[in-house]
Amino acid sequence: RKYFTPTNLSPLWVGCYDRTDKSLPKRVLAYIDRLQLDQYPGGVPNTLQNTNEQWDFPNVWAPMQHMLVMGLDSLDSAEAKELAFRWGQRWVRGNYLTFNKTRAMFEKYDAQELGGHGGGGEYDVQTGFGWTNGAAMDLMNKYGDRMTTGAIE
């Protein structure tokens, strides 16, 4: 694709790729690096285009973060697994910071600010969102023994 959306990496999440292809993890990580997806403190944005619509930059959506983390973790690569952990911890930490400030979980967050809620689209950002809660809980279940509440790079 000529544009980024997390679903570009969905084959990793569903396991729809050749697991014997030893070059795949390196190519996936090069793609992530080329697009500078690891630079965002609030999570990987849903697109890189800012249209002021809810599905675009800078909004970050829980199902997409979860899919990216689990997909990267499925690769046979220590570097991909570490990136998956870092993104998972970053996502949970942002949710934690926001919850501590607002006593709410949001449907979408801001890629540019750890713990900032998203915006744009035809309605105000919603709170109490099940998919955000579910993604955070599953990531805590997966990585809870490694996660911390301290500063993140």
From TrEMBL:
Q: What family classification does the UniProt entry report for this protein?
A: Belongs to the glycosyl hydrolase 37 family.
InterPro entries given in the database record: 6-hairpin_glycosidase_sf, 6hp_glycosidase-like_sf, Glyco_hydro_37, Glyco_hydro_37_CS
Q: Does the keyword Hydrolase apply?
A: yes
What does the organism's lineage look like at the top?
Answer: Eukaryota, Metazoa, Ecdysozoa, Arthropoda, Hexapoda
Q: Which organism is it from?
A: Anopheles maculatus
Q: Name one GO biological process term.
A: trehalose catabolic process
Q: What is the protein name stated in its UniProt record? A: Trehalase
List the PANTHER family.
Answer: TREHALASE
What are the protein's GO molecular function terms? alpha,alpha-trehalase activity
* Pfam families from the UniProt entry: Trehalase
Reaction equation(s) it catalyzes? alpha,alpha-trehalose + H2O = alpha-D-glucose + beta-D-glucose
Q: Under which EC number(s) is this enzyme classified?
A: 3.2.1.28
- State the UniProt keywords alphabetically: Glycosidase, Hydrolase
